[in-house]
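Hmm, how's this folded?
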Amino acid sequence: MGEAVLNWHVFPEGISIQELLARGDQATATGDLISAGNWYFHAKRRGSTEGRDRARGLQPRLEILADQGDLDAKVLVAGLLLERGEQLSRAASLLETAAGGGVVEGMRELGFVLAGGVGTAADPGRANDLYRAAAEAGDGYAAFNLAVNYYRGHGAGKNFREFAKWLQMAGELGIPEACAVLGDQCAKKGLDGESLQWYVRAAKSSHVPAMLVAARRYRDGVGTAVDLVQAVRWLLTPLDRGNGDGIHDAIELASSMTIEQIREAGQLSGHSDEAELLILRR
């Protein structure tokens, strides 16, 4: 479903980091710096240093747009400042302006700085109000942040009903952290098939712990039939994030797989070269 996402406002569920970078590059080439910056930020949230660096490279031009009053540019500049821990009070001011102008991402990010008192006085109650407004406008990360605050009792009394409500919304919007938590909750209830579905949704959006859990479930047939191709796929995919925790298990499973199965797993994971090494280790 994520592959159909063309608007950067929508969380790009299941879209690869390389595709996010490509969309950013295409937008940069056409002079659409707001779209470019947001596609790069989506990649950065997946752990892409390339996304981070390309977003930083846009900052001088985004600063010009922000000075001209572009509210989306103000949010991007604020995000770049916050990432580096620079000019924090200015970042908070930029977000105040953007949020006051109704920019959803500005509301969410202002909620973040208010929740932690970053560059401004902490105000967790107002942070939750901003998260709620952004979530009601369809922002999945705002919904997840609000869920976490209800779970912790930060800025509001602990409220499991509200936690569950906003967590479910975040999961349905594809936020990988929320999908992983929903997978954990379903697992505790013995809903193994539903649990696996949530883990796979999280895994498709670069959530490494969910990848490894999904791999074990495909290996052991928990919530699904045993599927070694899918198991090795999700053991290899964490390499995208520089995580090799699944390699030992992948080597072990490959010994009982056909060459064709190993190559299919490699193709699905985007790590065909590593799959060839598994074949050599059989």
User: Anything to note?
Assistant: The two ends are 36 Å apart (CA to CA). The mean pLDDT is 96.
